[in-house]
Design a protein that fits this description.
single chain; alpha/beta; Peroxisomal Thiolase, Chain A, domain 1; 2 domains; five-stranded mixed β-sheet; four-stranded mixed β-sheet; 8 helices; globular; ACP_syn_III_C; acyltransferase; ACP_syn_III_N; transferase; Ketoacyl-ACP synthase III
């Protein structure tokens, strides 16, 4: 008995934000001092390191649950199912619904409950709840759905990942240019007919000394309200942490699946930073003394930025819909999914299509 994906969907917001958008921003350091480099140099460095040229923002009338709803509707339509047959709706996010122009997060009721309501599901035994697990939240939701299905608790689950990071950034912090908005979703169900499905998975939380590599902190502009918090990160420590731990986790997950490295057709990794992701995959293949195959890792961060939990399900939907050149997933292909983020959390799963 396996858990398989029967439908995928995503929602890419229509508002395109190029690097020129930040040309007039006043970027400061942690002490509130103006950065020495001009904004053109800052954005050029960002592009060189992260690969980001554009990102998408939600419209002023949308919140995270709105984006999640659209991705969920697309996944349900793609699966060709009646939403009343869903046993669980799991919504991965980190900041709730933050309305445009405000700083307050709204998480009550849960975003999953809001999506279930908007889908018009009457089945009271369709359980809706949220997952807060940093950027790896969507994968963690998939792992939980897999556990429910394999335990016989559920037959069909909807897992959503959505975020509006544009609502929680400090405009005086150059790291704000990395973040984006978006949503992705997948429908999973029990599979007793063939070999497709989740073959292995793992999760880990490094909290002893690594907990605050991503955190909520005050604005770099000391004149702004000190009680208002924004997403902050220690980029260097995250990079070092990811290179040290993520390749090992990916290897352990692949080894547990029973597949050899040569059977791996695709790696779908959280789109956080192009150079970091390339370094992770290079080190992963070094653990097997094997060169990195061409086109093994699709990247969309150039145009979509880092939308946290939405990056992986959104990317998966794009590949399966044939929207990425040089990338496709065929029947029996083996794909490794992996993510790292706030917590610090790492997770992965191996899937045969």
């Amino acid at each position: 008995m396996m858990t398989r994906i029967i439908g995928v969907g995503n929602y890419i917001p229509s508002e395109t934000i190029t690097n020129l958008f930040f040309d007039k921003h006043i970027f400061l350091n942690e002490e509130g001092v103006l950065l020495k480099d001009n904004n053109a140099s800052i954005t050029e460095k960002l592009k060189k390191i992260t690969g980001i040229e554009e990102r998408r923002y939600a419209s002023s009338t949308q919140v995270t649950s709105d984006l999640g709803l659209k991705a969920a509707q697309a996944a349900i339509e793609n699966a060709g199912i009646d939403p009343e047959t869903l046993d669980y709706i799991i919504f991965a996010h980190n900041f709730g619904d933050v309305r445009f122009g405000t700083v307050q997060s709204d998480m009550v009721p849960s975003l999953a409950a809001r999506v279930k309501h908007l889908l018009g599901i009457r089945n009271n035994f369709c359980v809706a709840y949220d997952v807060l697990f940093g950027c790896p939240g969507w994968i963690e939701g998939v792992i939980q759905a897999n556990a429910f299905i394999r335990a016989g608790i559920a037959k069909r689950c909807l897992v959503i990942g959505a975020e509006t990071l544009s609502r929680v950034v400090d405009i005086h912090d150059r790291d704000s240019m990395i973040y984006a908005d978006g949503a992705g979703a997948a429908v999973l169900e029990i599979n007793e007919n063939d070999e497709s499905g989740i073959k292995s998975h793992l999760s880990a939380s490094y909290t002893l000394t690594e907990k605050d590599y991503l955190y909520f902190g005050k604005s770099y502009n000391n004149e702004r309200c000190p009680d208002t918090r924004y997403i902050k990160m220690d980029g260097r420590k995250i990079y070092e942490f990811a290179l040290l731990h993520v390749p090992e986790a990916m290897k352990k997950c692949l080894d547990n699946s029973g597949y050899s490295i040569h059977k791996l057709n695709k790696i779908i990794i959280h789109q956080a930073n192009e150079k970091m992701d390339e370094a992770i995959v290079n080190r992963f293949y070094q653990l097997y003394n094997t060169p990195v195959p061409e086109h093994i890792m699709p990247m969309v961060i150039h145009k979509l930025g880092n939308s946290s939990v939405a990056t992986i399900p959104s990317l998966l939907a794009m590949i399966l819909k044939g929207e990425l050149e040089h990338h496709e997933i065929r029947k029996n292909d083996v794909v490794l999914f992996a993510s790292v983020g706030a917590g610090m959390n790492i997770n992965a799963f191996v899937y045969q299509f």
